[in-house]
Amino acid sequence: MKKEGNISLIECPRDAMQGWKQLIPTEKKVEYLNALLKVGFDVLDFGSFVSPKAIPQMADTKEVIPRLKLTDTKLLAIVANTRGAEEASEFDEIAYLGFPFSVSETFQQRNTNSSMVQSLVRVQEIQDICEETKKKAVIYISMGFGNPYGDPWSEQIVFEWVERIVSLGVDIISLADTVGVATPQQVESITKYLVDSLPDITVGVHLHSTPNNRADKIDAALNAGCLRFDGALKGIGGCPMANDELVGNMDTEWMIAHFEKAGYNLQLDREALATASRLAAEIFA
Q1: DSSP letters along 186-247, please?
Q2: Confidence check: pLDDT of 237 > 90
Q3: pTM
Q4: Which CATH superfamily is domain 8-283 in?
């Protein structure tokens, strides 16, 4: 396994919360997010600027922001269109705008109500907004390892869309296994190609997985040279726009232990992590 460079951990409470059926009170969100901000994660995917009708759980994102106690951990907000990006860009606290670009036409329509071609235009608009407001765009390649809809998919299709996105000035790409269909072989092959062919681009993975094959997927990404990993405490989450049963995120605490066993040194506050873990257990009981 490669051990060159440092692992970047992106904690994704937004992904964990967005599909949770019980509405989480704003007070509890603020308490949880502030606990996570103390842990030492590189980035906190904390909220989203999307339609409250589509994702009711995230309707209070604007209320949450001024109550966050900022640390060195950078904030990332998900947006689904240009209007959302404009709203998010007004907050100096936010460093990254994330946009889900699907290589499945069906899922792009379900998730952002736009076609893939229209969404590429949105990527350009979001990138322009980021440049104007000194933020960074993170483009998630949704359904990056296949889809359940029968839409055309191949590694070459993934590569072509990523290259088009990168040509717009985007320099952070995260490959998303949206419904947990990826095999370790796919993870290694696709990630390695992009890491090797796009040396100036940060290539990460946002893998949804059940516990039985998560180690193989993580090791595949590491072997491919990936150093940016998304996860969520307790492994909660998944995209509610994909299907009824959420596959779940990579469990952050498990990932931390796995990376350290592999020889990576993660600079995290263990006491803060334990506190955040207890809060996660309460919220996602």
Answers
A1: HHHHHHHHHHHH-TTSEEEEEEB--TTTHHHHHHHHHHTT--EEEEBGGG----TTT-SS--
A2: no
A3: 0.95
A4: Aldolase class I (3.20.20.70)
